[in-house]
Amino acid sequence: MLHVVHHADYMAPRPTRGTFKFDKYYLVMEALRASGQPITEHAPEPCPREWLEAVHDPEYVEQVFTSTVPPDKERRIGFPVTPHIAARVRHTNGGTWLAAKLAQRHGYAANSAAGSHHALADTGAGYCVFNDLAVAANRLIAQGDAHRILIVDLDVHQGDGTASLTAGRTDIFTLSLHAEKNFPARKARSSRDVGLPDGTDDDGFMAELDRHLPELLDTFAPDMVLYQAGVDPHVDDKLGRLALSDAGLIARDRFVISQVRRRGLPVASALGGGYGADQRQVADRHAASMLAMAAENSLYSSESLSL
Prior knowledge:
The chain is an alpha/beta fold. 41% of the residues lie in helices and 13% in strands. It has helices at residues 23-34, 49-53, 58-65, 71-77, 83-106, 132-142, 160-166, 202-219, 246-261, 279-297, and strands spanning 2-5, 39-42, 108-111, 149-153, 172-179, 192-196, 224-228, 267-270.
C-alpha cells in the first residue's frame, strides 16, 4: 500500500511569467491511479503560519501570504508568487509534515509534491518558495514526534536552502549527493556533501550512496528520515548533469528505503526535481519512484518502527 499525500492546490494555475511547469503534479497522480497498485490518498491541511515563521523570516512569510514578494525575490524563485501559489505552498508544506506523520504509522509515506530544498530564510530560490523539509523537521522535533532527523537529499542539485536553515543544529543532519557543477553555483555547507562529477552513472552513484548512508544511519542514529527523492539525476533530465537510468533511480530509492526500514525507522519522501519537455515522462519517473519505495517498505513490518 502506498500512502500518498496530495491536494488539489498542488496543481496551481501556470503563472504568466517564468519557465516552471506545474503539469507534472497532476500527471503524477494520474500515473499512480492508473498503476493498478493499492494507493491511499491523504489530503493535507495548509501549513500553519507559525510553523513557517519558526524557520523563515516572518517578513518574507508575510510577503508570500499577501502576494507582495518583491520582484528580485520572484526572479530568484523563478515565477510570480500569486495567491494561488501562496495557497499551494502552504499545502505542500503541510503535506510533507503529514507524510512524516503517516510514515510513523506505516513505515513509509510520500508527499506528491514539495522537496523545496533551495528556499532560504528570507527568500525563495530555484522554484522553491518555502522549505518544507526544514519546516517539517523543525516542527516534528518541536512537538516531540522526533528527536533526531536525517534529511537525505538525492536531487541532482545541492540542498543549499535546507543546509542553511538547519546549520548548527545537532538534532538535524543533512546529507546531499548532487552534481558538483550544477545549480547552485555557490554551494552551502550540508552536514555532509558529496559532490559528484558530471556523467556519474548508476554504479558510481550507488557506490557513493552505499559509502555514506548506512554509516550515517548508524553514527547519527536518527529516529526519522526525510527523503528528497528528486528524479533529476536521470540521464535525460533537462536540468541534470548525472546519468542515472530508470533502473538506477529505482535501485537508489529501494536502497534508501531498505537501509532505513531495516533499522526500524520511518521514512517520508518529498517529490523533488524532475524536468523535461515531456511532462508525462517525468511524472512517470516520479510515480515509479514512489511505487518502488512502497514495494520495498512492504518487506518490513510497521510493528518494528522505532518511535
